[in-house]
Design a protein that fits this description.
mainly alpha; 9 helices; 2 domains; globular
Length: 182
């Protein structure tokens, strides 16, 4: 359980969202039930999650999963590491690459990471640092490798995971077992 209990009564329209989340994830997510205390926050969180891009053109699912995992590790969120790391082998993410995401190994030392993946990981890490410090040069380094659309998708993906990491940790939501062996 988290730091607080979910409400006993959840509006019917939020129960539909909880059902959809359970169908998509295979888990009855505590965070969704806790958000029922603030229905507008639950609705906006669900919309954000539903509308975020999970792969588009050259920003494939592997690259975006690397970004999600990087933010999860950088924010030290056990739930997020569990959820965003689940199925990493299906995307070809190796143990060496996970060491990069965990900050154990420099990205340049892992040949399997492409230059774009290295840049995206670095950008995600910078988006998770506190305090945030961005200069035009931080985005200028991305421009030769990513389109404007792709830069926005990278930024919104990292921001989305940052949102969830802070919310989940603030409410004490434990890992949900996404990475547990079947």
């Amino acid at each position: 359980m988290g730091f607080i209990e979910p409400p006993r009564r959840i509006p019917w329209w939020l129960r539909i969202g909880l059902w959809a989340a359970k169908r998509a994830t295979g888990r009855d997510l505590l965070i969704g039930r806790l958000l029922a205390w603030a229905p507008k926050a639950a609705l906006s969180s669900g919309l954000m999650e539903a509308l975020v891009e999970h792969g588009h053109g050259a920003l494939d699912a592997r690259l975006l999963q690397l970004v999600r995992m990087q933010v999860s590790y950088a924010a030290a969120c056990p739930f997020c590491v569990d959820m965003n790391g689940a199925g990493h082998a299906n995307q070809g993410i190796t143990d060496d690459e996970i060491e990069v995401l965990r900050g154990i190994r420099p990205a340049e030392a892992v040949a399997s990471l492409t230059p774009r993946e290295r840049l995206a990981i670095g950008y995600a890490r910078k988006l998770t640092d506190t305090p945030l410090r961005f200069a035009p040069a931080d985005v200028d380094v991305l421009k030769p490798h990513f389109t404007e659309h792709e830069i926005v998708v990278l930024a919104t993906t990292a921001a989305q995971v940052n949102y969830w990491t802070r919310l989940i940790q603030a409410l004490g939501v434990p890992p949900a077992g996404f990475s547990d062996p079947a």
